[in-house]
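Hey, I'm writing a tutorial for new members on how sequence and structure tokens pair up, and I'd like a real worked example in the thread rather than a made-up one. If someone can provide the structure for the chain below, I'll link this post from the tutorial.
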Amino acid sequence: MEDNIQFIELQKIDLSNVELKGRILDIGGGGEGIIGQLKGEQVVAIDRRESELKEAAPGDYLKIIMDAKDLQFLDETFDTTTAFFTLMYIPLSNHQKVFQEIYRVTKKGGEFVIWDFIIPNRGISDKDLYGLYLEVKIGEKKISTGYATKWNKEQDLEYYLNLGASIGFKSVEKKIMDQMFYIRFQKV
């Protein structure tokens, strides 16, 4: 399988001092459950796939099977919503609906925080998947993981900044870190 993946070089990210306030909705919070490991009982992690939630790291956070296109929460329920290397798995055709749902369930003045990586045009590559290995630092803990997605799309910081603005989010912080990006939106 790895022979079919175009990996970028190892990326490293330190979440030790990341500020995430209040009740947190983590979109795609299965897998390693990074945000759940980071913020514990503040987190409600959702994922469409039960298997992803079952393999998520144990911790004192809630895990719910749910599709981000149809969030089963009341309006303005969460102080913060996160997407940690998740948006790459959502088809581009669903991005607007997912962002609308995130906007709806995030409190006024609340934040939507994204970490993801740049996916370039596939060009003539014979690889079907595009991915990265990632080392995440949370305090003294280091988590080694990897992500790969179908290489049938492009994504970058500007794409998500424009999408967020079209929904009504205001960008309050943005950063490109090597081949990854980080955006902090606010619902105004």
